Amino acid sequence: GLLLLAAALGAMAAARCPAPCVCDNLRAHVLCLNGSLMAIPDTIPELTKKLDLRGNSFMVIPAGAFLATPYLTHLDLQHCKVERLEEGAFRGLGRLVYLNLASNSIALLYQESLDGLSSLQQLILEGNRIEEIQPGAFGHLGSLTVLDLRANALVYLPDMVFQGLQVLRWLRLSHNALHVLGSEAFAALPALRRLSLDHNELQALPGEALARLDGATRLDLGHNPITYVAEEALAMASLRHLFLDHASLQDVAPDAFSRSPQLRMLDLRENQLQGLPPLAGAGGLARVSLDGNPLLCSCLLRPFHSWLARARVQAEGACAAPPALRGRSLDSLRPPEMRCSHLRPPPSPTTEPEQPRAASSRQCPRGCVCSPDFHHGSCENRGLQEIPQDFPGDTRLLDLRQNPFRTVPPDAFPGLKELVSLHLQSCSIRALHPGALRGLESLVYLYLTHNHLSTLAAAAFEGAPQLAYLDLGHNAFSRVPAGAFRLLPSLISLHLQHNAIVELAEGDLAGARGLRWLYLAGNAIRHIAPAALAPTKMLEKLQLEGNHLSEVPTAALQGLPALSELKLSGNPIKHMGDSIFLPVASSLQHLYLDNLGLEWISPHAFTGLGPKIRSLYLESNKMSNIPDMSNFTGLEILNLEDVPFHCDCQLLPLHRWINKLNLRIGATCGSPAEAQGLKVKLSTTFRTCPGWGQGEAGKTTPNKTKAASKPSKKKRSGKPPAKGFSKSRA
Description:
InterPro entries: Cys-rich_flank_reg_C (IPR000483), Leu-rich_rpt (IPR001611), Leu-rich_rpt_typical-subtyp (IPR003591), LRR_dom_sf (IPR032675), LRR_TM_domain-containing (IPR050541), LRRNT (IPR000372). Residues 293-341, 644-690 form the LRRCT domain. By secondary structure, this protein is mainly β. Among the domains are: 17-153, Leucine-rich repeat, LRR (right-handed beta-alpha superhelix) (Alpha-Beta Horseshoe), CATH 3.80.10.10; 202-338, Alpha-Beta Horseshoe (Leucine-rich repeat, LRR (right-handed beta-alpha superhelix)), CATH 3.80.10; 576-688, Ribonuclease Inhibitor (Leucine-rich repeat, LRR (right-handed beta-alpha superhelix)), CATH 3.80.10.
């Protein structure tokens, strides 16, 4: 009887499985991979524990999206084009322990975005474009042990931003653009053991912020432009492993680590150190790695060399000079060999960064709310017609959204030298006057979306040299405000999406030398001048989806050696010729060519592209051939949904290649009639093709490799290998 009941329950659950998904009722798993889902399915079995939705197109996760599946423990939403998490999106998932939101387009985490996840242990947000985290965003995640924020667009961490993460053990912030940390940014993290801050833009050791981490044992600070470690710069009572490799270090003070008594391993590889003083304060140090430094093994190095022997510290490194000692390892040197001839004076230490001044005690403007704990001021939606003043001098985030200001006059924000983030969205602003931001010397984020701006003068940004994120989306620009960015040497991210821009002309981006992310989606761009992007040699992401481009702007891509993501989705590009991505072939990882109405693509269109490509979106097109992609061995996502393939023998190479991929790509036959609607991978129409038996022998199970293998070289039909994965024009 119990068996019959279980079978009945299983049948009921199977009946509710959404059509594009696969349901494993025994393990309570549901997989809906790489499909065309636009919304979270509402017919997923209620008892599902693991839900995998990778590779769909949700854009927004609405409030209460998973209320019908309260037993979920694992949820995977990677590569789902998610841009926004509405407040309460995960409410009801009190059993969830693992949430993966990697490789989406989330830009901002609001206070209630992650509400309801009281049992969550791992949160993966890697590879989004998160620019700002509002304090309180993680306040409901009391069980979280791992938080992964790698490869986002963070420049600044405000005080108490991780409040509520009482049991967090590993915080991953690598590969952002952090150069400002609030002194209390890491407060309230009592259980943290490992902090990863490598590959950022920190110019000095953030000692004050790190001093809050009493229990951390490993700190990664490599690949930051830090030039000097000052006296007592690091006060971390439990720190054992410190990585400062591949920085720009020229000098380290003798007592730099004296307040980190447990330090055992110090990694200083690949810096600019000519030598070190005795690190007398680091009494427990066991190993120092100095490989890749230009060590000058002169008499100035003797004190350090003697200290190594006395303290029994193992040192790795070799002399770069003088010539007689070049290549000699430190542990092979004898003191008499370290002479003072040909001595060059060591570089002088850089001055320490100025300490922040004491906070002002001025009152909060009438009708506004000022938070002394978070250093926030807010007058959101108060009907104000003039920008209020007299905010506390230590205000770091000022929210003035949804007030009809209409204009921002000169010197609109006096006394706010510590302001980092300024929100002026939906304020009916038509003019940003010269000098409007004067005095905002710490400003990093400026949000001006949903206003009526149509032009900007460079003088509007005078006095805000640290501005890194400028959001001008949803305004009335008909062209990029040429020259406006000359006074913004720190600009990293520029948002101009959803304006009315018709052309990107030469000179439009003059001065934007450090720009890394450029968002131009939803404009009316028909032409990009060959030299338009020339000033932006550090550009990593270029988003041009939803414009009026009729061809790939190949000439404009010249000179962009770091470009890793190119979005051309939704442009009316009907044809693609040879080598159109060759200028960025050595760096490109993510390519979006979906919804173009593409009718023809050259077999050589992807020349130069190969193992670096991780995701390729070609869905919703009409092309009559597919270039050979057998060398795309690093593919993680390939989407060929809604392409009406004609499944005849000319498509056999594609069929064979798909069978070697451990990916779901969604390729479906549109014809002939007997194959219509079948997956290309499963269609039986290929069995009549010459060479079918030999090519398909032993292929019942796809290879369990991560990416594509090369097509089989066995050919008995006498035909030459296909140059592309073609479809006939029947």
